[in-house]
Each structure stands twice: as structure tokens, then as C-alpha cells.
Amino acid sequence: MLTTSVVLGGGLFAAGAAAAAGSPTSGVTAEVQNEILGEKIDVGGRTVNGGLFTLQTSAGEKLRTYCIDFDNPVYLDSGAKYHEADWSASSLNSNANAAKIRWILDNSFPQASLASLATNSHVEGLTEADAAAGTQAAIWKFSDNKTAVPQNDKAKRLRDYLVGDANKGVAAEPKPSLTLSPDSASGKSGGKLGPFLLNSSANEVKLTVTGDAADKVKLLDKDGKPVNGSLAGPIAKDTPLFLDVPAGTPDGKAAISAAAEANVLSGRVFMSKVDAKGRHSQTMILAGSTKVNVAAGAKATWKQGKGALIDSTAKEECAAGGVRVSVTNTGDEAATVTVGKQQVAVQPGKTESVLVKVEEKTAYDFTVTGPNGYSKQFTGVLDCKVGVTPTPAPSAPAETGTPSATPSGTPSGTPSTGAGQPAPSTTSAAPGTGGLAQTGGNDSTPILAAVAGGLVVAGGAAVFVLRRRGRHGGGATRTA
Q1: pLDDT digits (tens, 9 = 90+) for 23-55
Q2: Three-class DSSP category at 203
Q3: Nearest residue to 49 via CA among 186, 139, 148
Q4: Are the C-beta atoms of residues 300 and 314 closer than 8 Å to each other?
């Protein structure tokens, strides 16, 4: 089972722990692979290679993604890590054409087979590489406002179909694979802690409670009925769960765990974590629905005595240009809480909201502190707008535009394919030029790249092997 850590929402794991302010907790996490299935595309006077990326989960499950963040890098040298996120935390939050992108994903490769795609687009003889390049070029029109034209005629004709009159843009944002939010809550014994809001595309979600007094505390649904083991789907949006702590239960804490076999739906956004050098990679979007095992978690803390009882959560709000912090006081005394450089008074039983303004594509790091030693750190990068060059991390080496040493050998993996489609062959070949490894970017940030392996045509499919230090960028991350 893929057991993903709580990576998307602000999480209280221990005093001083760092957490990302992003989408609700949990979801799929994966690492980008150094391969791309696609072909050359002309974009704004330059030529790049565009197509399908592969992300791989820790359990070996493979996800196919397209780029929706043309001007930012992908840092393969550090093995860029990605997590599932909501549209509200990405550039799609204010993109009027987001539904058109979703339509493309649902009606093109690999979600649609090559045969059905050829029939609908009237482009016969499409290879996987043709389809991937044409689809990526179409997406860039709506995600980045780029005029992207594949050099291959069949890929170009497919692109024209996908951005044409057939695209009605009617698809909405897909449901998350599995989230449980907030990731932490506190309160007094003798009451209900929560609600914890469950969202999932799964047909069944298994739920367990562990920790202090696990034999006494109970997980309840919105009607106050015990949840015994699991909830059957379909899971309604924001299904509320509560943790009932009997009166007199000694101070303690518990963990709520959720697990499911869920479909990660086409159109879910994947944003990168900040790597060890302070860099974040381009934002991607899932190209085809894939079934994975996924887990989510939340923590609850309770006390008996008097005094303030503080908890906080945070979420990136692209529309507001910052991170929205919610501070809750479930105690019986007022508290003064510091959120970054701001102070807020929180009365008993109340929640106060504080917006921490954050510059676009610039890393943020702030802490929430309160009475009784409460401390919770939030870190990440707000990545909401297209066409904005990321601020270089101070520790990152200066880019020179000189290709890195050419690695040897074959690709680390072969891209998965659409239903019924053969996997493309891969071989080692002589290294290509620096431009061959591109999948986007602007001329102000030169590529540090070389091609490990070459272009192979096998059954009409092509795989580009990427070994580069970056051409795209991405979004919020969590550090622990």
C-alpha cells in the first residue's frame, strides 16, 4: 500500500514541526522520472520537446502528467517530489480556460485510446508520441497562453482539433483521491473534536483511531453514529467526522487514519515540494485516471484543565495572494497568538483568520506561536501565476547555460501507455544537443541539460530521456 504522509495542509505533528500551507491533507505523492514521451514543438520562436512526463509513487505506481507551467524548471538532479493538490492552490485557480484543459485531458491520450482519438479528430495513423505532443501543445494554449505548434503534421492537426470547436470546456475540477482536513484539532474531554472533513473518489474508505484512550474515544458521523471500520462510497463532498472523547478522559492525543484504493482522476493537479536547495519544480496535471492505494491522516489533542487551547491550520489562497491561517481556541480563556509578524486575540470557542501575504514564486517560512508553548511552522512556495520566473534559492548555484555532463545508458523506465497500446521501445544512443531536452521555458533562464540516450522510433512512438537541471517550476511543499 502507498502510505502517503500528510503533506498538503498545515500539520501539527510536534511543537516546532514544519508543514506546508496548501490543499487539504494527504493525497498521492510521487517522484518525477527522467523520461518524456513526445516530440518537438515550436513555441514563441524556440523549439522544445513536449509531451508526457511520468511520476512514480513509492509503491511503483506510475502516473502520466502534462505540464501546465511552461516557464518554470523541473529539477531532475534532486529527484523532484510531487503531491496532489487542488486547483485553488495552482494557476488554475483564476484560469477561465481550466475546464477546457480538463476536456482535453478527458478526450485525448492517454485517457482516450489512439483509435478513438484518431476517429474523433480525423487524424489517422497517430503514434503515442504524436498524440502526446499534440495534447501538450493544446494544453499550453489554455494553461500558459502559448501558441505551441508541433513540428509533426499529425500532432499539429491533433492540437488544432483539441483547441477547436469540439472543446466545450464543460468538465469541472475532479474529486481528490483522499483527503482529511484539517490535519489537526484540539478540544476539551467530554466533547466532540472536529469536524474532520473527508473527501475521496474511492468506493470505500477504511478508518481507524489509534493513540491514547483508543479504547474509549469513538469516531462518529454527522448524525452521531459510530463509524465502525469504514465508510462506503460514493463519499459526499466534505463528509464530516468527529472524535468523541468521554468526560474525565486524561489529557492525551489520538491519530485518525484513512486508507483507500482510489482512482486519481484525470485533471488532478500535482505540485512539487521544495527540494534541499530551496527550489521547486513545474506544476503538472494528471493525464489519465489511475488507481492507487492512498492514505490520509489527522491528529487530535484534548485536555481537561482550564486555559487556552490553540490549534492552527493554513491554506494557500491564490486569489488572495497569500497563505490563510485559521487559529482556533477551544479552551476557556482568551489567548494572544502570533502569526508570523502579526498578532491576533482569539477568544474562547472562536476561530480567527489571518492572511499572510506572500510574493509569487518566492519561498515563505513563518511560525504560529501561542500560550503553553504552542508553536507551528509553515513553509512553502506560492505558485499561482503563469509567466513568472521563480526567484532563485540563495543556496542554488548560478546557472550558466552550459550543458551538464551527458549521462550514459538507457532510460530509467519506459513510459506506461494507454489502454491497449504497446509500450515504446527505448535504447541508448549518441547524445543530442542542449535544445533536445527541453519541455518548456523562457530564454532568460538557460537550460542546464544534455540528452542521455536518443530518439528512438519504434512502432511510431518516441521517448526522450531527460537529464537536466531544470526548465519548469511548481508549487507549495512541506518540510518536516
Answers
A1: 445 689 999 999 899 999 999 999 999 999 999
A2: coil
A3: 148
A4: no
Q: Is the dihedral of CA 448, 434, 390, 28 positive or negative?
A: negative
**Residue 113 CB neighbours (<10 A):** 16
pLDDT value at residue 476: 34
pLDDT of residue 449: 33
Strands 29-43 and 148-150, bridge-based pairing: antiparallel
Type of residue numbered 13: F
The answer to whether residue 98 scores a pLDDT higher than 80 is yes
Q: Identify the CA nearest to 95 among candidates 68, 122, 133.
A: 68
For the chain, the C-alpha Rg in angstroms (whole number) is 23
CA 302 from chain centre, in angstroms, equals 31
112-116: which pairs have CB atoms within 8 A and are 24 or more residues apart?
Answer: 112/418, 113/418, 113/419, 113/420, 113/421, 114/418, 114/421, 115/420
pLDDT of 144-185, one tens digit each? Answer: 999 999 999 999 999 999 999 999 998 899 999 999 999 899
Q: What does the pLDDT read at residue 431? A: 24
Mean pLDDT (the chain) is 79
Helices (H), 52-97: none
User: In degrees rounded to 5, what are phi and psi of residue 136?
Assistant: -60, -40
The three-class DSSP label of residue 162 is helix
Each residue of 208-256: pLDDT tens digit? 999 998 899 999 999 999 998 999 978 999 999 999 999 999 999 999 9
Tell me: the pLDDT tens digits for 465-475? 343 333 433 33
In three-state secondary structure terms, 117 is helix
> In the sheet where 191-200 sits, what is the strand order?
178-181, 191-200, 239-245, 218-220
Round to whole Å and give the CA distance between 404 and 468. 7
Query: Which residues does residue 303 pair with via DSSP β-bridges, in sequence order?
Result: 188
CA 359 remoteness from chain centre? 20
Between vectors from CA 436 to CA 69 and to CA 153, what angle results, nearest 5°? 80
Report d(CA 277, CA 95) in Å as an integer. Answer: 30
Angstrom distances, CA of residue 144 to CA of 69, 98, 388 = 7, 11, 11
Evaluated on CA atoms 1, 260, 323, 314, the torsion sign reads: negative
Helix, coil or strand: residue 1:
coil
Distance between CA atoms of residues 269 and 28, nearest Å: 10
From 269, 368, 316, select the one nearest 28 (Cα to Cα). 269
| CA–CA separation, 63 and 290 (whole Å) | 7
pLDDT in tens, 313-344: 998 888 899 999 999 999 999 999 999 999 99
**Cα separation, 83 vs 29, whole angstroms:** 4
Place of cell 489554455: 142
